[in-house]
Amino acid sequence: MRYLLLIVVVLMMFAGCKQTPTRSLVWSDEFEYSGTPDSAKWNYDLGDGCPNNCGYGNNEAQYYTNDLKNVRVENGMLIIEAHKDSLGGKAYTSTRMVSKGKGDWLYGRIEVKAKLPRGIGTWPAIWMLSTDWKYGGWPESGEIDIMEHVGYDPGVVHGTIHTKAYNHIIGTQKEGKLTVADCMDAFHVYAIDWSENKMDFYIDDTMYHSITRDPKDDFTGWPFDQRFHLILNQAVGGNWGGKEGIDDSIWPQRMEVDYVRVYQ
Q1: 139-185, pLDDT tens digit by residue?
Q2: Catalytic site residues?
Q3: In a domain, 45, yes or no
Q4: pTM
Q5: Rounded to 5°, angle at Cα 25 from 19 and 29
Q6: 48 touches 56 (CB < 8 A)
Q7: CATH number at residue 50
């Protein structure tokens, strides 16, 4: 009887081990170099998105560049820095980095360790867009906001999905938020765990928001069965980031990124 019990316990332990998924690191940038970000991993969205998407659709006040002043790697950190210096008819410059064509994923854990800028008018984001736009333009093909923070509401971090059925234009976006009082002074890990029918949002080890696909949803509610790529940017002002104006006295402001890691 004693041996039978031992066998049962061993089998239960083995079954438990089999249920634990094993993930591998499939893509990363640790920023363990200096100068220009790795061109094998990053592209850039440049300018202000005009004429078809002026201010990248949000009436933002920055002009995006890939100049070292606005984006660089130093001391093991990626720096995305916004400056008050007129360019292209905009009063500010900043950077919007994209992994499209160099890092595109369907499902997995995407995590970014970052420290955020501070001040009214800052709007840093860590987010994802569809690579292939199978279902059409925004919001039909979806958007995943891993982290957004607006400077006029310091410490409140948002995680959101946007789709045709659920988006902020019609007030139906699926959003979670968590207050992280020191997000502008310390590094935190912002992450999603994305599977076929579920998306969990994390800050460090805390899951603060979870979205499960409604069985009734087709692509209009859940377009997340396609490849997405990562975007890192710091916007200035705009419909949300500039809701309470822009403090002209705070610039430059930077978002610092320690690493980006993707596991599948």
Answers
A1: 999 999 999 999 999 999 999 999 999 999 999 999 999 999 999 99
A2: 143, 148
A3: yes
A4: 0.91
A5: 155
A6: yes
A7: 2.60.120.200
